[in-house]
Amino acid sequence: MDETSPLVSPERAQGPGYGLPGGAVRSPPPAAPPPPAPPASPPGARDRERQPLLERDRGGGSAAAAAGTGGVGPGGAQPRGGSAPGPGTGPGPAERPEREPRNDFPEDPAFAEVVRGAEAASERGIFPERIYQGSSGSYFVKDPAGKIIGVFKPKNEEPYGQLNPKWTKWLQKLCCPCCFGRDCLVLNQGYLSEAGASLVDQKLELNIVPRTKVVYLASETFNYSAIDRVKSRGKRLALEKVPKVGQRFHRIGLPPKVGSFQLFVEGYKDADYWLRRFETEPLPENTNRQLLLQFERLVVGVGWGHHCTGMEDSEWVVVKEPIIKLAAIDNGLAFPLKHPDSWRAYPFYWAWLPQAKVAFSQEIKDLILPKISDPNFVKDLEEDLYELFKKDPGFDRGQFHKQIAVMRGQILNLTQALKDGKSPLHLVQMPPVIVETARSHQRSASESYTQSFQSRKPFFSWW
């Protein structure tokens, strides 16, 4: 992607760090005189912009917050390290920068309360419980009463993570490296895909994905390296034997892990259970209508809007009583940087359901079309995803542009399918499209895009 083609149009109000990895600010040429202060945003520029779901960076001081190990905590948490003090000076108690990431969500107090309950439970010895299904380390998180309140998936315990506790994936990676993983996905970014899927769901007002955000948690039951555990025990021992030395340690326990935290949904069962039951017990007309409307939201938001490459029947759940509700609970394989084109096609398993053959309803058209047909809405969605994805220490701007190009193509196909009255099955049969920002050596008032179709198909195709 061309470096001179920023993600956001120049006319839109931006934070000074937007468009560069980690929020860095371009420096002026060294030979130039002292640069003037950057021009202020035009009055009312932010008023024209839709309210984002994520707080945008406003100042250059946040440039270092997303880079290296001093990443920003969710909800605008302070970085672990600050700028170096001048010679002979040091930060006082009130000025000391906070080194630990914080779980602070001022825009979502209810979610923040749930996370605080999880932290309080760990302090009382009620630790998260590992989920033994799946190919990565994931955990049921409990509150102080022992009730399951969420699912936490640490970044370094993902299928590509160094501390993945599932030995089967390690064996597959060791013995069959050529067949390991999906080359269409950004490695070790599943936790961001989980949070990104929730963000898209909120923007589209679909209410299919349980609320998910990036959270920092520590627990004895997580899979830590031997070094981390030895260091933690040594610090605890030092605190007990030599309190004056132990009190100097910044942290006594195990280091917190960054990962996705998804609110737990109660009363749901795997979609496969209900789909088999619906085959033997036909639903009443009204109930079947509810199922169809929920299925459309699943297709639009999760299965297509951001191209989740792993939508099997076990990755969305259904609750039947008192009304039918669907929930997409596993979205770590979303946001690919290209359409699958190597070995497998990773088909959408829901495309074989009878509901996939029914044309999109007028309800879903009225809900989705006004949003995805609005360029400003799509641009705001891209900005929110940028603010989320750039928190990762390994964030790559070029890969992010590729992910956005695939998402734009999915939105283009979805828009056309809704306008033409097509069904979800017809939607997945449309040619894959990539919509990239056009290369330009001059900045213009509006962005232009280039559209291309993917001609290469996977070796094992399903159509």
Automatic annotation (TrEMBL):
Gly residues compositional bias, start-end: 68-91
UniProt membrane topology term: Lipid-anchor; Peripheral membrane protein
Biased amino acid composition, Pro residues: 27-42
Catalytic activity, EC: 2.7.1.67
Pfam short name (any one): PI3_PI4_kinase
Catalytic reactions on record: a 1,2-diacyl-sn-glycero-3-phospho-(1D-myo-inositol) + ATP = a 1,2-diacyl-sn-glycero-3-phospho-(1D-myo-inositol 4-phosphate) + ADP + H(+)
Residues covered by the PI3K/PI4K catalytic domain: 125-437
GO molecular function: 1-phosphatidylinositol 4-kinase activity; AP-3 adaptor complex binding; ATP binding
Superkingdom in the source lineage: Eukaryota
Biased composition (Basic and acidic residues): 45-59, 95-105
BP terms from Gene Ontology: endosome organization; Golgi organization; phosphatidylinositol phosphate biosynthetic process
GO CC annotations on file: BLOC-1 complex; dendrite; early endosome membrane; glutamatergic synapse; Golgi membrane; lysosomal membrane; membrane raft; mitochondrion
UniProt-annotated stretches for the region Disordered: 1-107
Subcellular location, record wording: Cell projection, Dendrite; Cytoplasmic vesicle; Endosome; Golgi apparatus, trans-Golgi network membrane
Keyword rRNA-binding: no
Key words of the record: ATP-binding, Cell membrane, Cell projection, Cytoplasmic vesicle, Endosome, Golgi apparatus, Kinase, Lipid metabolism, Lipoprotein, Membrane, Mitochondrion, Nucleotide-binding, Palmitate, Phosphoprotein, Synapse, Synaptosome, Transferase
Family: Belongs to the PI3/PI4-kinase family. Type II PI4K subfamily.
Name this polypeptide is given: Phosphatidylinositol 4-kinase type 2
Higher taxonomy: Eukaryota, Metazoa, Chordata, Craniata, Vertebrata
